[in-house]
Structures are given as C-alpha cells and as structure tokens.
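CHAIN AND CONFORMATION:

***
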Amino acid sequence: MSQATERLHRYLEDELGECCTEDVDSRLKELDTLASTLGTERAEAELDVLSALGNKTRYTLVRVLVAAGEELCVCELNAVVDVSESGLSHALSRLVDAGLVEGRKEGRWKKYRATNRAVTLVTVLEGSVTVDE
C-alpha cells in the first residue's frame, strides 16, 4: 500500500469508525471520477487563462479594459503601464491568446476591449478579495 493510500485508509477509518480495503478502493474510484470530469485539455486551457493573468502588466491591462467598458487604443494602454511598446504588444498578444481581450485595427490605430470571460473573472476576483484600507 502506498503512503497516500495508507493515509486515506487512516482518514476513512477515522470518518467511518472502521475501514477495509474495499472502502479505500471505492473512495479511490470516486476521487478518480472527480478528477477525470475536469479533463486534461480543459485544465490546461483554464491554466493558460490564469497564467495570462499572473503578471502585473497583463493583469493591469485586463483590469483597465474591464473598468473602461469600451475599446481603448494601444496608445492609451501604453500610458497606463510602464513597459516598452514591444512589452505592451507581447502582453496584449498573450491576453488575446487567452481569450481575455480582443483587438481590432482601425486605420493606423489598434484598439482592444475586454471579453466577457475577462469581465467575469475580474468580477469574481473583486468579490473574493477583501482589502484593508
């Protein structure tokens, strides 16, 4: 029996008052079913979105676009974050790839807006964090 299985056995014994191999096997099957409902591809896609937000510049850009509620030009976004034009372009590209922002060209200007996914994530985060003032 592996260390994890032994620990699960002890836990089930505490919870059930007694535990046998069948109880452990049954619980392991239940846990495997829970883990498989997520699926590897879905987990990777969700991690890509979270990873895209895991940088101060990218997170700031998303927050600003969500707060604006409208398209903003790259020149406006560049005024918000202290990065080079190349760094800004890379950050926006990563956010587009994650499905958090959409961009379009208008003449010689490039404009971006937050997607519904970004709005939802920011809304959830705002409701889950308390800030001491």
Remarks:
- Residues 3-38 form one domain.
